[in-house]
Fold this protein.
Amino acid sequence: MRNLDLTTLRSFVALADLGGVTRAAGFLHLTQSAVSMQLKRLEEMLGLELLDRTGRSVALTASGEQLLTYARRMVALNDEAIGRLTDQIYEGEIILGVPHDIVYPAIPRVLQQFNSAFPRVRVQLISSYTRGLKAQFAKGECDLILTTETETAKGAETLARKPLCWIGAQGGSAWRQRPLRLAFGRFCTFRPKVLRALDAASVPWDMVVETESDRTIEATVSADLAVHTMIEGTQPPHLEQIDHNGALPVLPVQLINLYGADTTNSHVQTALADLLRQAFGGQPAARLKAG
């Protein structure tokens, strides 16, 4: 009888969730070589190739996808049993605020990983604009918030620097029209920066949609009736980054900042902050703090 090792399965799940050995090792606080060795032993024990290493990034084979389903259940059951029997399971609620435009694709993955580790801790996700989230955080209405800003403000930790990009319908042509038709939220912090860039480049524009609904903006842009801007890599699959070849102005770099991580004494909040660091910054140790 062959037995699957839970430590190895945990490394396998981490690799699948985080997309690589480096991130999995950081999440598990192991060396890359230790994680790689665990995965190699797992493949040898099963006599199967679980990872497709032919591409630039590591992907799961069909056998790996099948094992992942079992591995998740086994790791979750192990953690539940340990928690119940040792009475050290955490309970409570964390209020996390995230701007609308950076919820996808990172936040659902973070919530899934956090729920696996702390199944009795409820994360209440508030999706709003940076300005509103900072006001709520100042009032103590949020435990942790992410923001999109152009600087590292006092009390913030910068997780990533990413360019702001023009976004349109797949294969669309709205970006060629003049005046340029725009769709923006009323309180979007990107909006004044975008308008200044257009004016500086002498590109005429028309604000055809001004709303508080992200769905309205997405529907308008996906119908190729207007264009929008988002941080690189955060656009939904039905929209695409516009390859305008210089026809539109270059937009400023945005910072994804985290507030609340350095002032908490809560183990579960620290764990959630670490997952956010890994999701947006890649390496939990790469922290940029303001005074």
Residues 283-291 have pLDDT under 50 and may be disordered. Residues 92-291 form a domain with the D-Maltodextrin-Binding Protein; domain 2 fold (CATH 3.40.190.290). Residues 62-86 form the longest helix (25 residues). The chain is about 40% helix and 25% strand.
